[in-house]
## 1
Amino acid sequence: MAMVKDPVCGMRIDEDEAETTSEYEGKEYYFCSQECKEEFDKDPEFYAEGKTGGAGGD
Ligand SMILES: [Zn+2]
């Protein structure tokens, strides 16, 4: 199991407990609710930019 962050509301959730997911530019995002996914899908670029870590890594 792995903890991930819902990029819309910022809630930390377990991958396995995510209500729904969405894929954007080859990366999978996890959401606590359908509402968060819909919000993400409206403007995925905005929320994807909110990821922590900055440059480098992976
Ligand atoms: Zn959420």
## 2
Amino acid sequence: MSEAPPSIPAVETSGLTRSYGSMLALDNLNLTVQRGDLFGFIGSNGAGKTTSLRILATFLQPSSGTARVLGSDVVTDPDAVRRKIGYMPDFFGVYKDMEVTEYLDFFGACYRLPAAKREKTIGDVLELVGLTEKKGALIGALSRGMQQRIGLARVLIHDPDLLLLDEPASGLDPRARIEMMAILLELQRLGKTIIISSHILSELQTLCNRCAIIERGKLIYTGPVSGASGDLADTTIMWVTTPEADRALPILIALPDVREGEVVDGKVKLTLKHKDADASQIAVAMVQNGLRLTGLREEEIGLEEVFLRVTKGETQ
Ligand SMILES: Nc1ncnc2c1ncn2[C@@H]1O[C@H](COP(=O)(O)OP(=O)(O)OP(=O)(O)O)[C@@H](O)[C@H]1O
Ligand SMILES: [Mg+2]
């Protein structure tokens, strides 16, 4: 566990900026990730996720601004940062002709784990990622999902406090993704802080407690995952249940706060003009027009929907 006091965040960036030539890949990013967070890092292709993670992992220098990992500066104290993090890049070479144990032993040695301790540590991390029975297998003979899990085992070998995982579930089938998510939850339970970038927003929504959405290198949102929909959604969708949906539809569409409506599966789906619109007018209109109202429900807007609305496909 880290020697940093608990009040120090896992990650804190201030004005973090990175350009490639004239291309601004990361623009003044101010981001805080608290200890113990399972933090989703969300953005379209080219938004700057990998750039940010590589800076935090000390593989890339910022152009300006600062980033601290558990209190250590990534530029002035990279060795301290590396000891505290496990970085799983989006593409990592797997040493296909190595056996699983050999491979993990190699990385254990890189982190200067004493040889006597390595065997137990390798056993522990293999158990965590559910691959104990593949100890002696050649990495090249493992499935993609298993190789991803070996990649995760590798970044756990020196027991880092912070995991930086760049799309760890990409290319995995649904079952392998669910298994990967379960492993991440277990790691969070064990006290690790995890930052995970991914495009599979529905999964991040159930997995993560907090998230950041970036677009063209700029931070659009950071906060609780559940707050993202409330803060960022520009409309509310209401579902009206009534046995007279077809008669209700034109009446409800005519209401001042309703933008559009349609009948879906026998229910009236209304999109309101703004998220603070007063939905009670729907109930009033139903009653005034002698229509039976058996249900009125606000639709929960998922992270995916919010993301699509706020980013409008702005990639670079
Ligand atoms: N080595 C590089 N040289 C020049 N431009 C780069 C380099 N690496 C990244 N970029 C540019 O920086 C921007 C951010 O890229 P980055 O890889 O950080 O995005 P990302 O959010 O990880 O995208 P993806 O979802 O596709 O992985 C992109 O416009 C990309 O083209
Ligand atoms: Mg990337």
